[in-house]
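tool=predict chain=A
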Amino acid sequence: MKKQLLVLAGLSLLVACSTERDSFKNRTFHNTTAWFNTLFNAEEEMDKKIDELEINYKDNYSEILPVDPRPEIVEGDLLEEAAADFKPGSNNNNKTASGFDLVEQKALKAIENHSMLIKGKERNKTMTHAYLILGKARYNKGKGFEALEALNYLQNNLPYHKKYTPEAELYTALANIQTGNTYEGERVMEKLYKDDGFKKKMRENISKYYAENLIRNEKYEDAIPLLDEAIDKSKNKKRRARYYFIEGQLYSKFTI
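tool=predict ok
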């Protein structure tokens, strides 16, 4: 009897694990497992890496400080880094992934193991979050075109995406700028900035990235209202101090 119960329990688990069976039990299993087994850790790693980059960034006070204090990464840098790391017979070729590499791997693993694409429709709502994390990781690695692939798939093909659409649009704008499509990136940022229905954290991020882009294009006066918005919405004293300092640098540009 005990053996039969174990067999039944095993069969029940296999049924629940199926990504091709559209039932409440299966959806719940894959929603929960994708988040707690993979995506939660991916988000923790992403936040940790972003904090690490901000802490270790060395400011050059002879220039206007970047609004987002992290080194800019472009596709060419990644290719050079990969070539430098690859040495025949070296242990570096099998090194454990970390940072944004690890985040990307975890997002891809969640998609591979828990996507429930049934009759052309995704039934696992957590996949929307997975593709957002994937897009953000790729953008932060300098893989702008691959980031756009993930983010566009999220917005065009996945249900349940309204909660994540604003952030996906913001990173779509950033990835467009990263790949040289500045016009489209600025268009999306302007649209987001005009929408005052977002929460404070989202408003801060939109304002600071839009300001960063304007400063990069030497539109210093236009960037100041955006920095004011970022200051108003930020709860982080260190970031607010940075925004104030950059404002002072911008004022000095057009008052001399």
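The longest helix spans residues 24-56. Residues 1-16, 76-94 have pLDDT under 50 and may be disordered.
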